[in-house]
Structure formats: structure tokens, C-alpha cells
Amino acid sequence: MLRVIVRRLLQLAVTLFALSILVFVWLRSLPGGPVDAMLGDRATPERRALLVKALGYDQPILVQYWRFLQRTLVGDFGASTRSGDSVLSVLGRAFPATIELTVAAMIIAVGLGVPLGYLAARYRGRMPDNLSVVGTLVGISIPIFFLGYLLKDVFTQHLHWFPPSGRISIGMDNTHVTGFFVLDGILTREWDASADAIWHLILPAATLATIPLAVIVRITRASVLDVLNEDYVRTAEAKGLRAKVVRQRHVLRNALLPVVTTIGLQTGALLAGAVLTEKVFNWGGLGTEITNSISGSRDYPVLQAVLMLAAIVFIVVNLLVDLSYAVIDPRVRVR
Amino acid sequence: MPLLDVQDLSVVFARRGEKPFTAVDNLSFTVEPGQTVGLVGESGCGKSVTSLAIMGLLPRRGVRVSGRVLFEGADLLALRPEDMRDRRGRDIGMIFQDPLSSLNPVVPIGLQVAEVVERHFGRTRKAAMVEARDLLDAVGIPDPQRRLKEYPHQISGGMRQRALIAIALACKPRLLIADEPTTALDVTIQAQILTLLRQLVVDSDTALVLITHDLGVVAGLCDVVNVLYAGKVVETGTRHDLFANPRHPYTHGLLGSVPRLDSPRGERLTPIRGSVADNIPWAEGCAFAPRCDRVNDACIGDTVPLEAAPHGRLRCTNPVPQEVGV
Ligand SMILES: Nc1ncnc2c1ncn2[C@@H]1O[C@H](COP(=O)(O)OP(=O)(O)O)[C@@H](O)[C@H]1O
Ligand SMILES: [Mg+2]
Predict the structure, then answer these.
(1) Rounded to two decimals, what is the model's pTM?
(2) Which of A42, A136, B253, B292 would be B272's cystine partner, CB 3.0–4.6 Å?
(3) CATH value at residue A180
């Protein structure tokens, strides 16, 4: 197991290296750049040249990348060309925000998706199943952007049940420990802060959860239908086991294996969806940073760091999924 | 009173938009306490469906079950599902054909055995595990303590079937139903499993319904044999009578297609011609008639009744003549 983890981490390093080149070159191939953004249209060519030189953008791209790599490897990620803040402080703010949002969305997707998928399979061809087919179709095809604004309109403008945007109420003077507000509230026993953070989380998380929720309902349904036909479920029934034991120990434990795999793959979709969701709810996470850093300002250091971080999250989550799969299914050997 | 008395059991599969299909057709047979009874017939004749109907394991939708399944006098078909759940595994145990697919791949063997005693005897997990170990030991699984934590894919096919036998017999049921218990196993293992089964049911005085398409399996084990064709019993008799002197042409044909130790080397086996697909409905005569060598006019037109015969029961208008001196 340990060897597997080490090997996978080495693979991660290689992947990240390749990806860093790709992102680096891609960013610089986009029209415009941070210098234009910083100086505006009316700067003199002399000032321009000075700034370009100061930032090192006059060097050949290979040299630029080499310097970037050297700095990155010693932990110097540079500063935002837009705000001047260090990239680390930007990430320290944005990363927990996005992770909190995606984890909340995943909890909703799994927590609702598995039981709903099970019900759909159990009542195959009847009302709950038909509802799930229609519901998941809507869930998969509705644009996040549209859904986000719709929910916001209904639940904040008209019903006033939830706050329209942000992660925490203005004036809520919560202590920052990890940057995960819900967790911080629990750690510092500022329960009101936790509750407030959760209250802010619900709408954006629900928005972000729709696609993974629909996918998980469908996968669980199909998987449960497969498992219900398995001989070992018949054996379990032949033993006279209670319905609950048959369901949990014999049906769900097997049916959830494909669902676990999906969770890994859905992480990618969640990170992509977070960009839109964060925009709608003004969330201030990685997605917000991407939107702000790419439009106009071309904030190379921040963009590079955020995209790499997203890749790391995706790869690490999938590694964890593979490892947990091996724990759940004794037949699987991870490589 | 017989232990199990199946009376006029019928199972009809009727899905919406499809023609209803009668898999089991007014089937009757009995099992006395401690007796071993065979249900024999070609694949598709309704053996598995019969066993599932007795166990109450047929899907609830799209299936019509009628008749009575009296177990110690109580009709199992009339029980509420929850009451039937209490009896399955405790009063009646069941073994299935494919030991690999019949065990849960992600649950350790120990728990798969222990959960039955936990359920029906109200044991704690710890006590149930101790019992599970003894049960595995009793079915001849070596090093049972270690096997408790192993998973089905880690043990051999023969061991898996032994584990399933341990599960089925864990609560000392009075009846065991074994549906093709050796069909999926290697020939060498088949004999071992049959020997084990016979030893266990004899020692514990458990009645056994042995389902098979293989008369060779029946030969070593059964007291009484019911031969099934297209969902109906065509002949019943003691093992000795049936093997020595089969009266129904179908039974006769089945015996002719079984390799026998005493048959001369090189003698060709004679399989029954045609296939089950060539049936005519029982309502229009004998379903076996299209494949029968002894067919005559009386075979077509009306249902041929199952009648008492000297050696048991027989459903035939023109049976194979009784051999002299038997
Ligand atoms: N769930 C089902 N739906 C429809 N037909 C079925 C079902 N199960 C079994 N049958 C049909 O019933 C007949 C008897 O099946 P079965 O009892 O499994 O035969 P066997 O004697 O080989 O065990 C077969 O023709 C089979 O196709
Ligand atoms: Mg069968």
C-alpha cells in the first residue's frame, strides 16, 4: 500500500511538471498580458518597456519558465500582478473557500443521490423511478449559471430565506484558523459563526451539487438494479436476513463501488462548476480568482498557481478514491 | 404428516404485453421428515422456479403463484412476507448452483456464515463468529479460524460450496433445498460435495430436496425421485424402482443418456431426440409426445393425468413395459 502511494505521488510530480509547462506557455500565448492591464492604453512605450523588463517578460519564454521553476521549487510563488498581494496569501484566502463549497456540494450530492438512486431502483418503473428519470435529466441539462440566478432570485429576493452572496455575514467577527469558516467556528466554539457560514453555503452548494447529484442518482440506480439481480442477494434473502441488513450489507455495499469512482471524476466537474457558481454568489474562491485574473488583467502568477492547485486537488482526490476503493472491495489491488 | 407437502403448485410468469408463461404447472410432491427427494428434469423444466416458490423468493411482480406449500401443515404461500422471512434460513435452508456468485464478494466468509445465526438464534456477533468457525470446520474447511476473515475470491470453488452448505445448515433447518449443488464444480469436487451433503443430512436427520438435471447425482443420494417435464411431474418412484425399471419414456430416455459404470465400453449414449422447445401444451395432450418414441393417438387431445402406479406415480398412456422379474 505504501509503495503504491509513493509511486502515485511520483506520478503526480511528473504530471504537475508537464502541466506547469502547458499552462505557462498557454497563458503567454493569450492576447494581451499583465503589463497592458497594469498600465492601461495610454502608457508611453518607455514606461511599458521598463515594466516588461522589471517583470522579466522580455526574456525568451524558456528562460522565463526556468526562472519560474527555480522560484517555485523554493516556495516563492510570486505576487499578483493585479493586486500586488503574494500568491500564497491569495490562495490562502481562496482555496479554503472553494474547498468548503465543493465539499458541501459533494455532501449534498452523495447524501441525497444515493438514497434517491436506491429508491428509483427499488421502485423501478413506478412513480419514484419515473420522477428520478425526469429529475436527473433536468439536473444534468440545466445551466449552472441560470440555476444559480434562479435560486438566488427565489430564495433571497422573494423569500429572504438565505443571504444573496458571500461566505459570512458582514459584522460576523469570526476567528480565522484554517480559512474553512464552518470548521473554524467549530474549532473556536463560535457556533454562531459556523451556523452563519452554513447558512451562506446552502444555496451555492445546492447550485453546484445539481450535476453531480443527477449523475450519482443515475449511477446508483443502475448499480443497485445490477446488484439486485445478483445471486448473493438471493442468498441473503434465502438466509431470512432482515430487509435492512440485506439492503445495507449486501446490496448497497456492492452497489456503491461504482459510485465511489464517480465521486473522483465528479471532482473535475465540481471545480469547473465552482467558477460559475462562485461568480453568481460572489464567493471569493479559486473560481472567482480565475475569473478576475483572466479577464483583462492576465494575472500570470495567480492563474498559474490556481490552475496547478486545481489539478493537484483533482489528482489527489482520485488517488484517495482509488485507495478507498481497494479498502472497500477486497478483490481490487491498486497499482 | 409429511414435512413438506406441495399441492398443485403453479407459477405463471405474466408480464404486461407478453403471453403468460406457465413455468410450473399444478405440481405436487411430498417430502417426509429426514427423507431425500430428487427433482429431476432437463434444464428449463421448472426445477429452480419450484424451489424459489417454496422459499418465497420469486419476484413479487409479474408472477402468479397458486396452490399450497404445506410445511409441517402450515401453508407457506399464505404467510405474510415478514413471517416467511423468519422461517427462511431457520426452518428451510437453501444451496444454489454457482458458489462464486452466490457469496457476497465484499463480505468476509465468517460474517456471511455468522449473520444467519445472529439473525435466527439472536447471538451476539462474537458468539456467532465462534459458531461460524465450528460450522466451517464441520463442512470440512481446513483452518476455519483463518477462513473467517477471508473473502470468497480467496478460496477454491469446492470450499465456497462447503461454506454455502455451512450457511444453509447453520440454523439446523428441518429441510434443505439444494438446487444443482454440484453443477458448477469440477467432476472430482462434485463427488466430495455430494458425499458431504449426504453425511450431513443423514447425521442431522435433515430432509433434502435435491434438484438436478443429472440422474447420476440422484442415484447416490435420493430415496424418492420426481421426474419433471415442462412444469409437471411425469413419474415418481423410489430410486431403486425408477432406475431398475423406468416406466415413462422420458425417464427411460434420461437414463439412456447417462453414462453408467456398468455399461459396456464404447457403447453410445442415446440422448433424447429433439429439445424442450418441441413441447405441446399440456392442455392438448402429453407435452413430451413430439419427442416420444412410444407416442400413440391417446397421447394427443386431452391432458394425460398423473395416476398412481405400483411403484409411485406415472403420467403416461403407453408406458415402457414392466421388465419381468423385477
Ligand atoms: N423470472 C422469470 N421470468 C420469466 N420466465 C422465467 C423466469 N424464471 C424462469 N423462467 C422460465 O421458467 C422456466 C423454468 O425455469 P427454471 O425453473 O429456472 O428451469 P430449471 O429446471 O432449469 O431450473 C424456463 O423456461 C425459464 O425461462
Ligand atoms: Mg435451474
Answers:
(1) 0.84
(2) B253
(3) 1.10.3720.10
